[in-house]
Design brief:
Order of helices and strands: HHHHHHEE
Number of helices: 6
Number of strands: 2
């Protein structure tokens, strides 16, 4: 279960990078959209958390949404022109934090074997975390573009991890990269 713990650290690293991209912006910048057929940074923030909750809920534990009113708005099936009425920055931040706490709690239970079918769920959790990490970074790319290109803010440096690289311009976590401490030479 060491791998799940390492992937939870990568998930936290991805979320911390997201925070670097938006926490210094004004509420107006977080909710600004260059046009009706685009999504604000705030939508991406809520969507990242919505998908994390949705995947944890549907793949490992049936639990209610931490903010059911946001579910329809943050779903990518919702056309972009209907993504304008965003909640406050504080509500988005609380939603993101609550979902992250639930991800940690559920993956922690799986890693500790406190679930039915612990070996099977460990495999699911491993792939689930990689998907969540890469989904976080996918939207970070779009947040970065709005931050730098549209709002004129500098970008923070990429997070540092042996498991991270850029593919097609996107940060990705590759779980098949063996950390230097585990490489056979």
């Amino acid at each position: 279960m060491h791998e799940l713990t390492a992937l939870l650290r990568e998930y936290d690293r991805a979320r911390a990078y997201t925070d670097e991209l938006w926490k210094d912006l004004s509420p107006d910048e977080v909710t600004w959209r260059p046009r009706e057929e685009s999504s604000a940074i705030g939508w991406h923030l809520g969507h990242q958390a919505h998908v994390a909750h949705f995947m944890i809920r549907n793949l490992t534990a049936a639990e209610p949404s931490p903010d059911p009113e946001l579910d329809g708005l943050m779903d990518s099936a919702n056309p972009e022109k209907f993504r304008g009425a965003l909640p406050t920055v504080e509500r988005l931040a609380a939603f993101r934090d609550t979902v992250a706490e639930r991800v940690h709690a559920r993956i922690g239970d799986i890693a500790a074997g406190r679930v039915g079918a612990p070996s099977q769920l460990a495999i699911v959790a491993n792939h689930l975390l990689v998907a969540l990490i890469n989904h976080e970074y996918q939207h970070d790319q779009w947040i970065s573009e709005a931050r730098a290109d549209n709002l004129g803010h500098a970008l923070p440096p990429d997070p540092e991890s042996d498991r991270l690289s850029r593919v097609d311009g996107y940060l990705v976590c590759n779980p098949y990269v063996c950390p230097p401490s585990h490489r056979i030479t």
